Amino acid sequence: MDIALIIFLVFGLFIFLSSFFTVKQQTSVIVERFGKFHSVRHSGLQLKIPLIDRIAGRVNLKIQQLDVIIETKTKDNVFVKLKVSVQFMVVKETVYDAFYKLEYAHDQITSYVFDVVRAEVPKLKLDDVFERKDDIAIAVKRELNEAMTTYGYTIINTLVTDIDPDIQVKNAMNRINAADREKTVAEFEAEASRIRIVAKAKAEAESKRLQGQGIADQRREIARGLVESVDVLNRVGINSQEASALIVVTQHYDTLQAIGADTNSNLILLPNSPQAGSDMLNNMVASFSASNQVGEMMKKNKRIVTKKEDKYTDNLPEKKSEEDESEEE
Hints:
The longest helix is centred in the middle third of the chain and has 69 residues, at 167-235. Helix 6 packs antiparallel against helix 7 and helix 7 (240-261) packs across helix 8 (275-328). Helix content is 62%, strand content 19%. By secondary structure, it is α+β, with helices and mostly antiparallel strands. The strands form three sheets. Strands 3-2-5 form a three-stranded antiparallel sheet. A three-stranded antiparallel sheet has the order 6-7-8.
């Protein structure tokens, strides 16, 4: 008797506890009574009649994501793989439709995505597919919303997250990009080379200008120094010819010393006897004398030509006056 009572109490306790169940947040539970839809229960502690009511299923109300990979071709006959991510959820008020009208929601969504993508992408070239991927995503979302609303689903968003052309097409696109960048690099390098050449030419021109100015200044100072040396020698009783000979000899030996000090100089043959300075001076004096004679002859000839022109000019008006007088007579 005691054993039967214990069994009865245990069974009653089991029946009592089975009358209660809990529903998690963002979840709905479908309750059926004798196999027929009875009610939809939402989050919290719920009650059902044991042995009469049963939990038919649970519906997730969270946002879900389905990734669909489609292979199709573009308008320019390039095969590409697109990855379309669909974010969807069950509307709380239409849990009945989502549970009873549609059994495999993922398969249904995948079919619509395939249909829309294979209708839109063949209208576009490969470059346009990359540029207009948002338009493809919007078209997918529009079609899915129209179709899935009937079954209690709503489409939150659709995203084209990856576009993967054939490997050969990708390599060709990379080569085009690389060639374009190499062209840009070549243009910049050419411009930089032109700037360097122009700058170098300007620097060389400035260097030669300064070098010429320096040589002119040097020769001017040398001439001034020679004049001062001759003046000093004249003051101590050395005439101009002797002073010039002394300066020439000094310059001659200074030149020989400078050439000997440079070990990298080429072979140069110069007279090194003491008489060489005198010979050089005599040659210079002879050259100056010849130059002076030529200059005097040129001046004399110029004076003769000038006199002839003046005489012709003086006689020209008198002839004109005689002709005028004859015309008057």
